[in-house]
Design brief:
Radius of gyration: 18 Å
Structural class: alpha+beta
Helix content: 25-40%
Strand content: 15-25%
Keywords: Kinase, Transferase
Protein name: 3-deoxy-D-manno-octulosonic acid kinase
Order of helices and strands: EEHEEHEHEEEHEEHH
Number of helices: 6
InterPro entries: Kinase-like_dom_sf (IPR011009), Prot_kinase_dom (IPR000719)
GO molecular function, one term: ATP binding
Distance between the termini: 43 Å
Number of domains: 2
Number of strands: 10
């Protein structure tokens, strides 16, 4: 569906009015600057879109380039949003739990912008901030284990998996988010497991999270 400069690709039965509501919210995703572990400071949430509660995720530049150009990308082929959408659709048929993908929005041919549409997952915390008891944390890692095994079996590397990119639902289910730039087709499971453990440990140290998060994650991965 085309709305002004935006193209919306979605399996949802969107009405023109609902599509307009989505595109009108896009500027807000680039205006926010809240820094959060996990990068969700710029998401917008809209209820009542085709009967769903939709989260809109922008793809923004960080680092030094982000200070000059935060919103535009130069590239050909599938946009980052289209790639993440396709991966989330694939993962929806596996043991990996992610926010259900609803589509994506794109704008521009040379200077490109894009956004991912997902179902909002009700939660109060990520694993980085969840006030879990020892038994609750053990239960959560037990539910995370089959998801990580599935990623290893599929050869998928979530390049930025850390406690801030795992949201904890009200039912205590770990939901993996932010698969942007994920790598696929990695056959060496041991090497892939080590990549996950190292990235996780770096985040725990950098953000001064409880060391128990690293120990439990490493122990879990060693058993897969």
């Amino acid at each position: 569906m085309r709305i002004g400069p935006y193209t919306i690709t979605s399996p949802l039965p969107l009405t023109p009015a609902e599509a307009s509501i989505l595109t009108e919210a896009l500027p807000l995703t680039t205006m926010q600057s809240t820094a959060t572990l996990g990068g969700r400071g710029s998401l917008q949430f809209i209820d009542g879109i085709a009967g769903k509660h939709v989260a809109i995720k922008p793809y923004l530049r960080g680092g030094l380039m982000g200070k000059v150009n935060r919103v535009y990308y130069v590239g050909r082929g599938k946009s980052r949003a289209a790639q993440e959408y396709a991966l989330l659709k694939r993962l929806s048929e596996t043991a990996v739990t992610t926010p259900p993908p609803f589509g994506y929005i794109e704008s521009g041919l040379l200077l490109r912008r894009c956004w991912l549409l997902m179902e909002t997952v009700p939660h109060d915390h990520t694993l980085a901030s969840a006030p879990l008891t020892e038994s609750q944390q053990e239960a959560l890692f037990a539910r995370l284990a089959p998801q990580m095994k599935a990623l290893l079996d599929l050869g998928i590397h979530h390049v930025d998996l850390h406690p801030g990119n795992i949201i904890v639902t009200h039912e205590g289910l770990p939901v993996l988010i932010d698969f942007d730039k994920a790598r696929i087709g990695i056959e060496d499971k041991k090497a892939l497991s080590e990549l996950y453990v190292k990235r996780w440990a770096r985040a725990v140290i950098k953000h001064r999270l409880p060391e128990s998060l690293s120990k439990q994650f490493a122990s879990m991965m060693a058993k897969l």
